[in-house]
Amino acid sequence: MENELIELIDACKRGEQVAQRTVYARFSSMLFAVALRYTNTRQDAEDVVQEAWIKVFRHLKSFSENNSFEGWLRRIVVNTAITHYRRNLKHVHHVDMDDVHATPGDLEAFKDLEFTKGELEHAIGQLPPGYGMVFKLYVIDGFKHKEIAEQLGIDLNTSKSQLSRARRFLQGVLADMSKRAKEIES
Amino acid sequence: MSNEQQFDDRVKRMFQGESVAPPAHVEERLFAQLAPSPWAKRLGLTGGVLLICAAGLWNALDESSATMEAAPLAPPTESLSIETATISKEVTDLASANGTVEFHSEMSSSSDRSVQSSSAGASSNGLTKEEVLSKESSTQIESPSLQSLDRVPASPIDLDCALPSDLQQAPEEQWVLPAVVKVKN
User: Fold this and answer.
1) Domain span holding position B134
2) A171 inside 8 A of chain B by CB
3) CATH number, residue A150
4) Smallest Cα–Cα separation from A169: which of A141, A131, A140?
């Protein structure tokens, strides 16, 4: 870790607000993007980042300088988002994957499939909430199945099967999108 | 590399380095929450002062209650010992002065002994036994030894006699006697 960042972190540990504002300015955009990924609305993302930043500054003493500071921050935001998700779980309409119109993806065809980030986000948005969480935690943020199972309060095998089905669903949706786009072009 | 792995890597790359600037009010809200408010400071200070005052007051009350609790215990022992000392001193004085130490209840038997002791003293003065007896019977009540006995504080001696009457129900009181309640299944 660079010396400047270590000094900043030390100053934050001493409760210096100038240093805290500097750290915030440096990492807030990255963390807000993470929060947006795990929440449904901008307002929810704002709540999650605020809660996460409070945790960051209050528990900064527990951060070890041998680890990645950015990774530590991301973890806190993701964990806060999971807490937020679980808190609102009773308001979320549970949809099982079988209820979703899933197009089985042709993995061979998928290799040559072209899609944009916007299309991918749109496809992820169509996943049932639980499946979406598992997919994002595993594929984008690098959580292990054991951690996902613990964080979401689900079985380890459930996490594995939901990831597998989410992948197939996304590939199918993206392939469908690509097909329709080609049809429009031709 | 498997197809799954390829897909995962492709997705991960798309989200790498992603950043979205949060609205400015998030920062303001956050640092307002992090900074200790002046009200909280004032409240803490006032609370601290109040706590110290309360502790002081509690201490003072505790000490005064301790002295109040201790106060009634000491004097009775003292007065009792003084009374006992007074009685024993007077009794000793009287005994040494006349050789007669008797309480009211033992008055009749003591008169004989006092007569005996006085007659012993009188015979040495050259008086006959009858003269001594008649003289003693006329002057015994007025004897200085009996007068001195009357002045002995009687309360500790009468205490035993007074107790039973104290334990009796006064007309204006109504005593409640312990009752036995039997509960049937």
Assistant:
1) 91-149
2) yes
3) 1.10.10.10
4) A131
Pairwise CB contact (< 8 Å): A49 & B15: no
CB spacing of B22 vs A29 below 8 angstroms: yes
> What residues contact A24, with CB distance under 8 A and at least 6 apart?
A53, B27, B30, B31
B77-121 pLDDT, tens digit each = 555 555 555 566 555 555 555 544 444 444 444 444 444 544 444
- Residue from A107, A142, A121 nearest B4 by CA: A107
- A142 CB neighbours in chain B (<8 A) are 12
Q: Is B30 on the interface with A (CB under 8 A)?
A: yes
> Mind giving me the DSSP string for B29-71?
HHHHHHSPPHHHHHHHHHHHHHHHHHHHHHHHHHHHHHHHHHT
What is the pTM for the complete model shown? 0.57
Q: Which residue of B has its CA nearest to A113?
A: B7
Using the Cβ of B35 and the Cβ atoms of chain A, whether some distance falls under 8 Å is answered with: yes
* Residues A74 and A62 both lie in one domain: yes
Listed by number, the residues of chain A in 149-168 with a beta carbon closer than 8 Å to a beta carbon of chain B are 167
Residue B8 covered by a domain: no
Tell me whether residue B130 is in a domain. yes
| Amino acid residing at A87 | R
* Sign of the four-CA dihedral B140, B142, B148, B153: positive
Residues of A in contact with B30 (CB under 8 A): 24, 50, 53-54
Give Cα separations from A67 to A63, A87, B12 (angstroms): 8, 29, 21
- Cβ distance of B26 and A120 shorter than 8 Å: no
Q: pLDDT per residue over A10-54, tens digit each?
A: 999 998 999 999 999 999 999 999 999 999 899 999 999 999 999
- Which domain range does residue A121 map to? 94-185
Which residues of chain B does A140 touch, with a Cβ-Cβ cutoff of 8 Å?
Answer: 11-12, 15
Interface test with A, best of B1, B3, B30, B31 (most A CBs within 10 A): B30
The tally of domains found in chain B comes to 1
| Structural domain count, chain A | 2
- Tell me if B2 is assigned to some domain: no
Q: Are A23 and A60 members of one domain?
A: yes
Give the 3-state secondary structure of residue B172.
Answer: coil
